[in-house]
Design a protein that fits this description.
single chain, 368 residues, alpha/beta, Aspartate Aminotransferase, domain 1, Aspartate Aminotransferase, domain 2, 2 domains, 7-stranded mixed sheet, 15 helices, 40% helix, globular, binds pyridoxal-5'-phosphate
Length: 368
Amino acid sequence: MAIADLVNDHIRELRPYEPGKPMEELERELGISSSIKLASNENPLGPSPKAVAALRGAVGEVHRYPDGACFALRDRLSQQLGVSSRQLVFGCGADEILELLAKTFLSPGDEVVFAWPSFAMYPIVVRGMGGRPVQVPLGADLAHDLPAMARAVNERSKIVFVCNPNNPTGTSVGADDFDRFVESLPGSVILVVDEAYFEFARRPDFPDALAWLERRPGTLVMRTFSKIYGLAGLRIGYGIGDAELVGYLERARHPFNVSRLAEAAATAALDDTEHVERTRACNAQGIEYLGRELAALGIEVLPSDANFVLARSGAGTYEALLREGIIVRPMQGFGLDDYIRITVGLPEENERLVKALRRLQEGGGGGA
Ligand SMILES: *Cc1c(COP(=O)(O)O)cnc(C)c1O
């Protein structure tokens, strides 16, 4: 008897998520100590100092279980968002909110519609419950093709994911297109709007997804503390939805899924508007810098509403940059073989990347 025969079919066929390469790993491999990581859309400025202070204050209490209801954070965030505290569900990263959605709504054979390329966790959580991913290709501009997604929805569809701004392209959809799309969805499908990069979006007509919660109860908006708030290592994200829908996700959730440290840091981070503003300004400047400098090198860069850019740098650039001690994200897994995804770093990190790309073009790169 082989263990493989005992495993659920849909788990046996899963391909695990491939995270960005850790800096420690690259440094071990190259025997260097000064690598930079522009691969996982982390905040280059680090966590909010207020969050760090809150962590220090909470650390002596870790012998106690966390507050399973996240009362303090729930209270603070519901005020900030103008929703009831019963409309919020917290997870071990927004990734766990995806898991809770899949566990709550999907049975084997159920279809889930989303764009592709988009967030790599969608097919994993859907397949993990035996669901069927229906991946709708992005349009020619590598942005969501919402009309095509609407056409892909049928009576077998349980969930639709819209990732806005989209990872890994950085493209976003505007309010008119978004509202028309939501209008057209049957009430029988759960709409999940993944706004992991919401706080970075700059287009003036960015959709107000929260405005749909009252009109369309089967809607959940997802956000995270991993990106602009700089708390990726703590693992905390959340969903905002109608109280009934959120109540079902709460049933599926483990009682202590958010750690005491994560709750303390997230609550403090919400109050650190200065850190958020500084991050947004650093990012906007980095997006403009990379757009300009890469264009000057003849590298096409997609317009981005997030904290990363997708760049058509040619096949092999990922490996060549690794040899320069720079970790970006390869896009082969998405069928975008000649692209890389670059997280906006500190100004000096962005400059180091541009210099390395220039050297590679001049044929001087790829030493080591
Ligand atoms: C990073 C990311 C998430 C989730 O991040 P967590 O660290 O699990 O909160 C969700 N969706 C998208 C599109 C992301 O890029």
